[in-house]
Amino acid sequence: MEINKKIAKRWSRMGPRAVYGKVMATIAKENDDVLLMSADLGRSSGLASFYQNHPERFVNVGIAEQNMIGVAAGMTRVDYKVYASTFAPFASMRAAEQVRMNMGYMHEPVKLVALGSGLAMGFLGNSHFGLEDVAVMKTIPDLTIISPADCIELDKVMNATLNYDHPVYIRLTGTVNSPIVYEDDYDFEIGKPNWIIEKGLINVIAMGTTVGQAKQAVDRLNAEGYNIGLLNMHTIKPFNKEIVLDGIKASKQLFIFEEHTKVGGLVSSIYELLIEENITSVDVVTKSLPDQYLETGEYEYLISLYGLDGESIYNQMKENIERMSNAQAST
Amino acid sequence: MKKNHLEVSRDIRKIIIDRAYSCGQPAHLGGALSMVDLLTVLYEDFLRFDSSNPLCIDRDIFILSKGHTVLGYFATLFYYDYFSEEVFDTFQQNGSKLIAHPIKNLKYGIESSNGSLGQGISYAAGMALAYKKKSLPNKVYVMMGDGECNEGSVWEAAQFAAEFKLNNLVAIVDQNGFRNDGATAYSDVLHLAKMWGSFGWNVIEVNGHDHLEIHKAYTLAAMNDDKPTVVVANTIKGKGISLMENNNDWHHNRITKSSYDQFIGELMGNNNGN
User: Fold this and answer.
1) Mean pLDDT of all residues in chain B?
2) What is the pLDDT of residue A328?
3) Are A67 and B153 a contacting pair at CB < 8 A?
4) Residues of chain A with CATH 3.40.50.920
5) Nearest-CB residue to B122 (from A62, A71, A106)
6) Do B160 and A73 touch (CB under 8 A)?
7) Residue B271 pLDDT
8) So what's the pLDDT on residue B225?
9) Are B126 and A73 an interchain contact pair (Cβ–Cβ within 8 Å)?
10) Is A149 or A53 the better-scoring residue by pLDDT?
């Protein structure tokens, strides 16, 4: 597929859920063995047109997420390529043990698509937020966890996972008008995070649509004369230690942003790495969601409230960069 | 000369007792023994399989959802030459792949990993739906326990299989009346066969030790054209060993040398297994 500014803009306006449906419709046209499954959220995940064009390859299992995982695994056994989707907490927590048995233990390469993760559910509230999904899914051996940075990368992820013979949890964050990260074609490889902005002495690591929010902040700061790198951690597991370590070792100051509870997410993985490698020389600043039930409201309101929109990220970075340089100046 | 079905069941029960004794560990005996006749008729007369070519694509699928009774399943697979004596000797030994629950191993005829109850039926239903969509003739059989039917996910799958008219799916409920801590509530308060019927399944209730009744039930299941079938089989937990029958102490227990001799004597002295 050709990637250009126009498509990036259009897809950003549509948001990840609608783009998911659109991308899968294209993939299904060229691949007879692709089958989509939903736990009664087909219309909420942009799959209505997919259903119209390929009714025989769309299965609504009903409001039964546990059953959905088992059915998806069984169909995978008979050579279907199954993308099963529902909202993030139902995919990752309601059906966690089914994911563990079917996708983990039996290694059936189901692609489990978690819609509206992070705070994207807005007014629907904490029952629907994907606050802990990375933490829960991370504990399942051999499960790959991917979170695309924007809708262009979502397309890359769906195509890359098509013939990827491993179970995958695909975490979609953000909502309509999510920030654009990619406007041109690029190489996407599962397990190989990309430096979107070349690494410097100050670096940022983020996952999901938080990458785009961070990019807005980094672009502003770099325009002010800083030299800050940005790593898109699209694959959270397997965790690419080499690339992350390389970034950490280059850094005097490291920022990590995630739309996920601070318990067990990206920040936690990177802290574990810092301890394993005994790295204390880098100043680490993180922002995750607090370990509590959160306020509800419009998505933009929420990410601003919790310090994860471009503006808040800019302010936190500016403040901490100045703190660092003041500390250095005083020594 | 080919053995008759009663002899097959007897031999499989003997293999169960042999292994339970020789492994030196407690094993889930009651539920392993209660399903033997259901497995015998299935493997003898209905399930299409070839243990010399275990991956053949036109095989039928058997899923042991009540995974803890795996010894009865392993004994059956061993009887039909899926693996050697040497492999079976590793049963419940340190580091073995043949443990107290099935671990998927297609070469050995083990189609899925189980142990967490209530999950096998979803996996089986997924395979059944895929075969139907591909217009393939493969059938899928899934063995469950009555205690297992406590799990809510069983009923998610039951609704799904009925809605999608999975007439190539046969659930077998080994209704031996017990779960880990004692009797199930399916004898008085609740009625399993009616529950499955109300979920839109074709229900056939049988004596799960009567080979003719079982044979008839599997035959009817294969003829049904728009519903999944459940064979609710009334069985005796620990069937074949009088000390174990309806005695839940043998849900999970170890066999000593003296009781081993007694059990084998009883099995081999009683040719009809009934």
Assistant:
1) 96
2) 85
3) yes
4) 194-330
5) A71
6) no
7) 46
8) 84
9) yes
10) A149
pTM listed for this prediction: 0.96
With CB atoms and an 8 Å threshold, state whether A71 touches B119. Answer: no
Mean pLDDT value of segment A111-122: 97
Angle between helix B152-163 and helix A65-77 axes, rounded to 10 deg: 60
User: Cβ–Cβ of B126/A56 closer than 8 Å?
Assistant: no
Does residue A88 contact residue A174 with C-beta atoms inside 8 Å?
A: no
Q: Is B5-269 a domain of CATH 3.10.20.740?
A: no
Q: Do B113 and A101 touch (CB under 8 A)?
A: yes
**How far is the C-alpha of A247 from the C-alpha of A271, rounded, in Å?**
14
Task: Summarize the confidence of residues A313-321 as an average pLDDT.
Answer: 98
The pLDDT value recorded for residue B222 is 87
Q: Provide the percentage of residues in chain B whose pLDDT is more than 90.
A: 94
Residue A70 and residue B123: Cβ atoms within 8 Å? yes
Is residue A57 within 8 A of residue A28, CB to CB? The reply is yes
Q: Torsions phi, psi of B13, nearest 5?
A: -65, -40
Nearest-CA distance A190 → chain B (Å): 27
Which tokens is B4 given? 């008759």
**Mean pLDDT on A84-92:** 98
The CA distance from B255 to A277, in Å, is: 51
CA distance B209 to A86: 43
Query: Rounded to the nearest 5°, which phi and psi values hold at A248?
Result: -65, -45
Q: Which of A73, A79, A97 sits opposite B123 (nearest CB)?
A: A73
Whole-number pLDDT of residue A174: 98
pLDDT at residue number A331: 72
**Pick from A80, A97, A101: CB nearest B130:** A80
**Using CB atoms, which residue from B133, B157, B159 is nearest to A70?**
B157
Residue B10, both tokens: 């007897």
- Chain A CB contacts of B121 under 8 Å are 70
CB-count exposure of residue B169 (10 Å: 0-12, 13-18, 19+): buried
Number of C-alpha atoms within 13 angstroms, CB side, residue A44? 15
Predicted confidence (pLDDT) at residue B273 exceeds the cutoff of 80: no
**pLDDT range class, residue B270, cuts 50, 70, 90:** low
Q: What topology does CATH give the domain A194-330?
A: Rossmann fold (3.40.50)
> Residue A67: its chain B contacts at CB < 8 A?
122, 125, 153, 156-157, 160
pLDDT at B274 over 70: no
* Separation of alpha carbons B196 and B183, rounded Å: 20
pLDDT digits (tens, 9 = 90+) for B69-95: 999 999 999 999 999 999 999 999 999
Percent of chain B whose pLDDT exceeds 70: 98
Residue ranges of chain A assigned to CATH 3.40.50.970: 5-171
Query: What CA dihedral angle connects B70, B91, B43 and B248, to 10 degrees?
Result: -40
A80 CB within 8 Å of a chain B CB: yes
Instruction: Give the pLDDT score at A306.
Output: 98
Neighbours of B60 (CB within 10 A): 18
CATH for the stretch A5-171: 3.40.50.970
What's the alpha-carbon Rg for chain B, to the nearest Å? 17
Residue B224 has pLDDT above 90, yes or no: no
CB nearest to A101's CB, from B116, B126, B152: B116
CB contact under 8 A, A106 and B133: no
Please answer whether residues A146 and A235 qualify as being in contact, where contact means their C-beta atoms are separated by less than 8 angstroms: yes
Sequence ranges of the domains in chain B: 5-269
